[in-house]
Each structure stands twice: as C-alpha cells, then as structure tokens.
Amino acid sequence: KAGVTQTPRYLIKTRGQQVTLSCSPISGHRSVSWYQQTPGQGLQFLFEYFSETQRNKGNFPGRFSGRQFSNSRSEMNVSTLELGDSALYLCASSPAGLASYNEQFFGPGTRLTVL
Amino acid sequence: LAKTTQPISMDSYEGQEVNITCSHNNIATNDYITWYQQFPSQGPRFIIQGYKTKVTNEVASLFIPADRKSSTLSLPRVSLSDTAVYYCLVSGSSNTGKLIFGQGTTLQVKP
C-alpha cells in the first residue's frame, strides 16, 4: 500500500497570504488528522476528520481550517498567514478501527515558511 | 487526557539495551499507552502500543506495571539509526484521532 502523501512538500508564503495543504491518506483509511510541529511548541494537534466530518479539534485560531472529501483526501487551509505559522505541517491517517485508534500513519509533512 | 512525563534526553552506545520510562499518573481506565519515534524532518512513526503487562514486537518491548501509572519502552541492541526522538502518549477511545505529544525523549546513540 502507498503511504500517506502530502503536497506540496515545501512552500514559501508571505504574511497575510493564505495557503492550502493537501493530504492523501492510505487507501481504506477514513480518519485524517493534522498536526503542526515547531521547535518551540513541538507537535500540536490541529484537527481530525472522519467521514467528511470534523470529529476533534485542537486549540488553534479559526484561521486554521480543514475539510475532508468523500474519498478521504483532506485539505488544510491557513488564512492571513503570520510569521509564527512557519512550521512543519503533518498529516496522519488511521483506519479508525477499535483496536488501532492510537496508531496513526504520518506523511512526510509540508514545510511552510512565512516571510 | 493524562499528562506524560519522560526524560528530555538519553545517551547510549551501539549494541546496548535502552529503556525509556514514561510516567502517566492520571491514566484513565480506557487509555492505551503508545510510543512513537521521529527522525528529523519526518513524521512520527508508530512503534508499539499496550494496555497492561508486556507487549513485544519486532522492534521494541513495552512494559506496563499493574497500576499503569508508568511504562517503559525497551529497545534491544540499539544502533546509530535508532537516534531519534521518542514520544510516549496516553489516549483512549474518547479521543480517537487526536494524539497529544509531549516533549519526547531525544535518544542519542553513539558508536
């Protein structure tokens, strides 16, 4: 099976712009979660989608949003970019089965730089 | 969600067994203990998960005492490629899809 793929891998934006990141989960996985990783704050949970519905949300401002499509692919959007949004954005998918809900498969991430 | 505490860093030498202990005093009845490994500029990778006693797979063992307030990840005969950050997480079915990562333990394996 192919792993989790994320596009683009690298992105440079300027303050005030918006950005959309894409994630394709492992085939058959219905849960997609997004995380932000920075040197200062570490790995932080953004949100999780399951069957096109947001099921869990972290403590991020409304500028961060996401969605999931019927094929389980997910997108994450950040509007009005700030310098502090520079980070590695990771997507993870999970089969969301009863015994494996803590086992997530992470993609390589999108490195976002805000100038 | 139960808070986890683990050492910030550890050093070891190739061929040694490494044990990383994580404390989670407020673990709930339905919580599982999960460990992830992360290399620089890569996403974390699931290593092992357990509920109680001992779990072993091809890469590691997880020891969980009866009170479940701590757990120990054991890596047998580490190599240089095991140098990474190791995260201990505690989560249950009520938080499906939401992993809370702490600061992790940076393991440095020396030749």
Termini distance of chain A? 37 Å
What value does the Rg of chain A take, in angstroms? 13 Å
Mean pLDDT of chain B comes to: 91
Question: What is the structural class of chain B?
Answer: mainly beta
User: Care to count the β-strands of chain B?
Assistant: 9
Query: Whole-number average pLDDT of chain A?
Result: 92
Any idea what the radius of gyration of chain B is? Answer: 13 Å
User: How does the overall form of chain A come out from the CA principal axes?
Assistant: globular
- Fraction of helical residues of chain A: under 10%
Order of helices and strands of chain A: EEEEEEEEEEE
Please state the oligomeric state of the protein chains shown: heterodimer
- What gap, in angstroms, lies between the N and C termini of chain B? 38 Å
Which blocks of ≥5 consecutive residues of chain B have pLDDT under 50? Answer: none
The DSSP helix count of chain B reads 0
The percentage helix of chain B is under 10%
Description:
By secondary structure, chain A is mostly beta strands. In chain A, 0% of the residues lie in helices and 52% in strands. Chain B is mainly beta. Chain B has strands at residues 9-13, 18-23, 31-38, 45-50, 53-56, 61-64, 70-75, 84-92, 105-110. In chain B, the strands form two sheets. Chain B has a five-stranded mixed beta sheet with strand order 1-9-8-3-4, with no helix packed on it. In chain B, a hairpin with a 6-residue loop joins β3 and β4.
Short description:
The complex is a heterodimer of chains A (115) and B (111). Chain A has strands spanning 5-7, 10-13, 19-24, 31-38, 42-50, 53-57, 64-68, 74-78, 87-94, 105-106, 110-114.
Topology of this protein?
The complex is a heterodimer of chains A (115) and B (111).
Chain A: E1 5-7, E2 10-13, E3 19-24, E4 31-38, E5 42-50, E6 53-57, E7 64-68, E8 74-78, E9 87-94, E10 105-106, E11 110-114
Parallel strand pairs in A: 2-11
Antiparallel strand pairs in A: 1-3, 3-8, 4-5, 4-9, 5-6, 7-8, 9-10, 9-11
Chain B: E1 9-13, E2 18-23, E3 31-38, E4 45-50, E5 53-56, E6 61-64, E7 70-75, E8 84-92, E9 105-110
Parallel strand pairs in B: 1-9
Antiparallel strand pairs in B: 2-7, 3-4, 3-8, 5-6, 6-7, 8-9
